[in-house]
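Question (not urgent): is this output format expected?
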Amino acid sequence: MSRQQLAEQRLPKRRVRAGRPPREMAGEVDTRILDAARRVFLERGFAGASIDEIAAQAGAGKPTIYARFPGKEALYTAVVMRETEGKVARIESEPAAEDSLEARLRGIATTILERALLDETVNLMRLSISEARRFPELANSVRRAAFQRGTEAVARLLGEAVQSDELGTAPCFAPDRLPVTARYFLDLIFVPFMMRALFGEKLEVLRADIEPHAARGVAVFLAGCRHGAIG
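Got this back:
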């Protein structure tokens, strides 16, 4: 062995530090963690889920998870809000109907229900309800955040839909009253269907009733707007 090789062997070996993943990989790590968390929460419930199992399914270390989410509550909230954001983004990306105001609102209502009546969405809502007794603050905070995000999106869509209609001058569509009007819209369109889904009515039956329900709900909504009963 040469003198140089002997000298190299005596040098202390440098430790390779893992550190944070490159920026382009950070989103992929977050996706893996949230996908795994959603699976574990749906299977185990909030109380039965563990960060250890989530880490194992995500292929990520616990320090990596805690660096992003300070606890199980924050991780669960992130799972629900990602689901909400995904639904809202799809609803907002739907092209507006080039027809009457009633047709445009029916399109919004139909899209909301089509996006909401998916198995995992309904199951996450059932999970939040089932855990509300043991974790009321968590359930309430998640519900408020998700509903607020949905209301903001619907208010914006309603405001855009009425711009080219004479009803757009009605008091209920004034910018400061749009959030309340959006909540009325959701109460008529979204809430009845979700109650039916949460109490176990088959989703395929509900999906078949989306368009008739949207037509009825929008007709009642517009009648209320025209007569000053909404907003």
